[in-house]
Amino acid sequence: MTSKNMWFLGRFMHRHRGVSQLSSFFSSTSCAAEGAVAPPVDSSVTAEQAVRLWAQHFTLHGISEPLLSSQYIIAHVLGHKTFDGVDRRQLKDPLTDTQRVSVWKLCTKRLTSMPVQYVIEEWDFRDLTLKMKPPVFIPRPETEELVGLVLENLRLIRGESYGTDLRCLELGCGSGAISLSLLHNIPQLRVFALDQSQAAVCLTMENANRLGLQDRLEVQQLDVMGDSDALLSKCGPVHFLVSNPPYLLTQEMQSLQTEIVRFEDHAALDGGLDGLSVIRSILVLASKLLIESGRVYLEVAQCHPPVIRQMIEETMPGLLYLETRCDLTNRPRFCIIQRRA
Asked: Torsions phi, psi of 213, nearest 5?
């Protein structure tokens, strides 16, 4: 055991003398950079104590958001979504043997910088709980805003009923977050979704089946940049197209967090030298697949909206750039584009 870990243990034991044989918490600590920790043997530890213990251990190993990580994992083991949802009395009860082993197993995964979403294998997206598996891209809060924007926009165009026939194409479905959230909110909707990753296609279908939305969803493994002809032959006209495509500039990939670099699919992030490689292909497809006045909803980098507007005005006469919307941090994040009548 390193002197660093010895210092940490001493501080913890000093603060929590009521816990018996706390030295067994780290009865087997790896010398590897990951800092793998064996579960405690014959020790009594409460959920509250485990949260503090692991938050400090994550801090020592440079894990981002150490307290939140510890709280999410232990809340999950206790059967809750968030730590705030755990009954205060439950936090003071000793963990069962099964719970203790689970906490140590999952927290040790987090020590490798594995994102919490992959560690607990699920995450909430708007009003749905989705399964999460590496390396399928983890949906971010901005994408929840994108879905809200689409729903708001459709209500303005079509009214609360949305009409009896509504068809959508999602390009790059990942875990299925966008498609499934839209299907959940719009009973009349049918979605054709695609992704270049077979792992993403499988996870989208798994989530669809778990949520009972599979009957209105078709998912295919296709690359929007390389399989456009196949897509055109498989997908008929759609009322709208939605995508959170890869939009990071290749040079930005080098500055990503360790969690992202090590575990998430780089192809879901890297948009090429200018971040627009996939977006260009999407706009070309939009002019062919959208019905008249059909719309495209895109999540993009904050530098992209004026570039996309110029691209459409100069080279895509079949499309009309309607507006740019900002995210909750007031960054230009979403583009709305329409096919000309």
From this structure: -110, 10
